[in-house]
User: What shape does this take?
Amino acid sequence: MENRFLVRLKIADLKKIVIAIDGYSACGKSSTAKQVASRLGYTFIDSGGMYRAVTLYLLNRGADIKDLNNVEDHLNHVSIDFVDESILLNGENVDLEIRSREVNENVSEVSAISAVRRKMVRQQQEIGLNKGVVMDGRDIGTVVFPDAELKVFMTAEMEIRAVRRQKELSTKGIDEPLESIMKNLQDRDLVDSTRVDSPLKMAEDAIEIDTTNITLEEQVVQVVALAKEKINEN
Ligand code: CDP
Assistant: This one.
């Protein structure tokens, strides 16, 4: 226990880096990013949660997502904060609501809107100014932090991703059939990787990790090891 504490202190003394974790839906990006951040004493930011929160806001207001001017007006009233790894939408904790089926079904369309992306990316870049950040998403290594010291791109087979997502949702009290989860992951991957603004793609200098046959702990250990290499280089 003491040793762990000392290791953390030592890491905290070192120069901080930015770690970008991108990839397809439900490959384990957020779970990995969260643990890596905790082991390095870094801040974890789930950028997908921000797009989900905007989507929730628009849905709650009954906004027409196709009306871009209307979406821009609504955006002026959206404020997103992270407190103790919970996400707040205009001061209200929305950790659970942003995982709903309705949000899943609309978030990729909302995320394709440039005005939405501009607002989210600005906030994400501000958070990363002081480094010491692990951020996961779709465009973190390509657009948000193109100079991130460590970029990871996660992949996994579709079936395993759907099974993992089903389990994760069920721990939050949300029960969804496997087929509908799989369909949503496929739909989102397609929209996310074919949109015009900041499509999901692997950065040229990213390191790919296929998580199909490894455990969460193994993913975390791999990324922490890569991070330590980069920290020592910097
Ligand atoms: O957890 P999961 O991988 O299923 O998705 P997420 O990270 O919560 O992201 C939800 C959605 O937000 C994605 O399907 C993208 O449409 C969008 N997103 C994005 O456009 N850019 C990001 N940096 C992160 C998420």
